[in-house]
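Fold it.
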Amino acid sequence: MAIIDIKNLSFSYPAQESKAIDNISLSIEKGEFILICGETGCGKSTLIRQLKPQIAPYGARHGEIYYNNIPLKALDDKKNASEIGYVMQNPDNQIVTDKVWHELAFGLENLAIKTPVIRRRVAEMASFFGIEGWFRKDVQDLSGGQKQLLNLASIMVMNPKVLILDEPTSQLDPIAATDFINTLYKINKELALTIILVEHRLEEVYPIADKVLVLDKGRKLIYDTPEKVGESLRSAKNHNIIYGFPTPIRIYNECNTKDKCPLTIREGSIWLSNNFKSNINKINSYKKPDNSNIVLELKDVWFRYGRELPDVLRGVSLQAYKGEIFSILGGNGSGKTTTLNVISGISSPYRGKVLLHGKKISDYKKKELYHNNIAVLPQNPQTLFVKNKVEKEFDEIIKVMKLNNDAANKKINNIAERLYIKHLFQKHPYDLSGGEQQKVALAKILLLNPKIILFDEPTKGLDGYSKKVLGEIMKELKKSHVTIIMVSHDIEFSAEYSDRCALFFDGNIVSEDDPISFFSGNSFYTTAANRMSRHIFKNAITSKDVIHLCQQS
């Protein structure tokens, strides 16, 4: 019997002619692990929010959703809260108390569960998720990975029958993201919990799903097992959706072999060995950027958020060159975002220097610093939105840049077409998906004509094709001598588009190199393509690298 049955479901946002969800029907059996994927703005988040009426968006809905053969709208609030759990994309948006143990008990207290039962359930969940070591900590002292794990534990303590997650790993570093996905897999197998997961990072989660739902412009493109979905995409090579699929599938689809499509790194590694030789086994090194023109420099920078608090940055030194893409990678809480804040002048170090074009950043006036100089795309794009329509979001930038109407419209249209956001102009920014918000925020930043752009997790919430578009825009900016400094958890994106990569650890940069040297020397902090092919190709780090070497051999 289906635990969730969706029948002819359609949904439109207010004042929008197009449907965000268009006549979707599907059944989800008890204990299944369902993965939902698709391009940014295809309706993934809108669909799963329909399964949780308390947070469902406002608009026109048609069709029906059944939970255990009961119409979802007829389910009482208490049962809905306890049996259908929902984990949001941003962990900070879901945490409501100050202490870890308070957060674990909060949901049970609201369900009027007796105190002895609460204590037992909280202790059990804290043990299961390995939370004992930070059980009494302040929530604000947790890393991003710990906060997301706490959110998951806070839902699981209520013994839900269905667990819905909306891109829960988007703000986690690769190692924390893998740990989180492994925890979901363990919950699904050991508790037979039904899991519905929306995700763009598919490398780890795709092979463990029972079914994969691919959405395209609000419609169900395919709903089947991972194996059948992977094979069906071979006939859809030109579809943008292919860019977001796991590395083994993408490489398989570009190579002319007749055996079974690999889903995991292990299967991909065996497939490579069976089909290709290593007589041509090396990619030529990247062209090194010109380091003769230093546009930004940090010299022995130290920073802490309070006099009595520990140092977040410990003697950070770096140089960024004109017209390069410089990626900073590392775990959650290692100091990456703080470094961007120091570079942009938002935070001031208590020791060390920050030089912009050889001049102390503290000597710049704000107008001089932020107009045609430095621009920042923050981790949360909503902080840039001040209007009720996307179209109006560009008005303030136009005023600041003092452009006439013709020049402004030409520039806005050009950027909108490059980012594929023209169709979003009449929508409220908060009605957009996370990836769409990211693209609109980027459009505002590009209108400022910056010489240096600071990106904090720019690919968060973006599908594979949107990442490709963003990467091409970065390459265009580089040709115009714009310097890009990017903090990212997206190893695959950094490997493909960066000129240099640096690893942040314990408040400092411990290593930096060109992408090939940087990633091919790592065991875990490297790309899926490198892990899959390193036994046969020496330094391939991207899918393109592996495909090229396969075709050569």
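The mean pLDDT is 89.
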